[in-house]
Amino acid sequence: MQLSEIIKKQIDADTKRGFLTSFDNDQELQDQLMRDLVGLVGEVGEFADLLKKVGLAFSTPGYTGPTLAEATPQLRSELADVAIYLFRLSTILNGDLESDILRKMKINDERYRYLEP
Fold first, then answer.
1. Cβ distance 29 to 23 under 8 Å?
2. Which CATH number belongs to the domain containing residue 71 in this structure?
3. What is the predicted pLDDT for the residue at 43?
4. Are the C-beta atoms of residues 19 and 51 closer than 8 Å to each other?
5. What's the pLDDT score for residue 25?
6. Which of 16, 18, 27, 84 lies most in the core, judged by the most C-beta atoms within 10 Å?
7. What does the H/E/C string look like for the chain?
8. CA-to-CA distance for 15 and 20, rounded, in angstroms?
9. Residue 30 domain boundaries
10. Which ranges of the chain have pLDDT less than 50?
């Protein structure tokens, strides 16, 4: 499945559940962008918190946090949540995330070409 198809599937599901992606005015648009940004940051925070616990298990004698192997499924799940919020934010801004990513990759190819052997 292409990224654009995945995004459409998620946005269609969001719409059925009452999570809007189009708005009557800029204030409604900005309000939803802020709500989804808070959601995005929260998911990144959950990823970071779990990774912190994995790191503490490595660095702190006696700490019984999860191993990286144990945490990996949940870390991946948190990344999926992050992606869903990115899909929403891009859609709300009338973006095409797939094209935007490809365009940014091209810019980065030029910007960081000097690092290539």
1. yes
2. 1.10.287.1080
3. 98
4. no
5. 97
6. 84
7. CCHHHHHHHHHHHHHHCCCCCCCCCHHHHHHHHHHHHHHHHHHHHHHHHHHHHHHHHHHCCCCCCCCHHHHHHHHHHHHHHHHHHHHHHHHHCCCCHHHHHHHHHHHHHHHCHHHCC
8. 6
9. 3-115
10. none
Question: 19 is written with which tokens?
Answer: 């999570």
Q: Rounded CA gap, 11 and 2, in Å?
A: 14
CB-based contact 2:58 (threshold 8 Å): no
pTM of the model: 0.91
Of 43, 40, 21, give the one whose Cα is nearest residue 32.
Answer: 21
What pLDDT shows up at residue 3?
94
Measuring CA to CA, which residue among 51, 36, 116 is closest to residue 83? 36
Which pLDDT tens digit goes with each residue over 6-24? 999 999 999 999 999 999 9
